[in-house]
Amino acid sequence: MLKALALVASAALFAVPAVAQEQCGGDFGAFVRGLSDEAVQKGFGSAEARQFFGGVRQDPKVLRADRAQGIFQMPFIDFSRRLISQNRVQAGERNAQKYAEVFDRISQDYGISRGILLAFWAFETDYGAVQGDFNTVNALVTLAHDCRRPDLFRPQVFAAMELFRRGDLDPARTTGAWAGEIGMVQVLPSEIVEKGVDGDGDGHITLKTSAPDALMTGARVLAELGWRKGEPWMQEVDMPSDFAWEKTGLETWMPASDWAALGVTPRSGKLLGPDLSSAILLPQGKDGPAFLVYPNFNVLFEWNKSFTYVTTAAYFATRLEGAPVYDAGNPSPALSDDEMKALQQKLSARGHDVGAVDGILGAMTRQAVQKEQARLGLPADAWPTRDLLNGL
Question: Which residues form the signal peptide (predicted)?
């Protein structure tokens, strides 16, 4: 699935030159020829460009996948139960033991928990078993040609060419995700070029076949995105029934010890990082699961922008490190897709910026929901209910 990692490629290799480009859209063949000419201007050989682009084909399946990411409309409980199985938990435990030496190196070099990397490894490719069968070069060129996000994908084409030059990508055979991500933890070519780590010492960075390469690279990416070494990211908590719910959400941060003073208690174990800044996260409102999250949680949004995905991955990471299954509680039923879109339209009409009216409960929609709940005298827990929809 498409991540929102830092995709600014190195200026010397991937920047758009100060010459005319073949723009997105239009004739696909002409577009590819333009890319080939641009590659030569960037310093690639003519023979390299012919070999790299010679077999490129537009892939309509990539465009369909890009426009059909409905899984992110699922609420946290449904989504997490879909992604987290006992088999995945047990496989995570086995891989933690199998690659213990690699995880020890990661902890020492980057300070990143094995739980976090195992969670992404599980969700992205089922620990390497399902890495995607889209031709990587076709996917990247198709998305660069598509006018939806050409500036995001065009640099990735030239990063893939650099991997080809190094012998780490085959234009005809390398496959991955629909968005051009490669390997066990699914990273884009520019990240492999700039942040790839040869974890197994064989002189190549092969994220498709080498778990040490993939895990070390994923760790370096997270570290450079701002992961704070050795700090927690999430802890399940119990909330007092009379809590001031408007204080919850990712807009209000204070030391964990201050939340404890307000009656917030860890569901198991002791309070992590009492002096660390933290926020209360209620994925499905006051009657559902509750988590205390720390600054490292926000770093995960640089890996994937989906609130539901990040919350599930962060929770699964704690589970892989010994936390119990969360208390699902009894949250109010989720709104249907049509109801969510109607709610977003009503929120937008009241002046709130909710982004696209897409039926997805993202960060901006949550903030707007919380403000309107407070205005209407409803529990301001950012979980949209039919009472709120009717009240608007």
Answer: 1-20
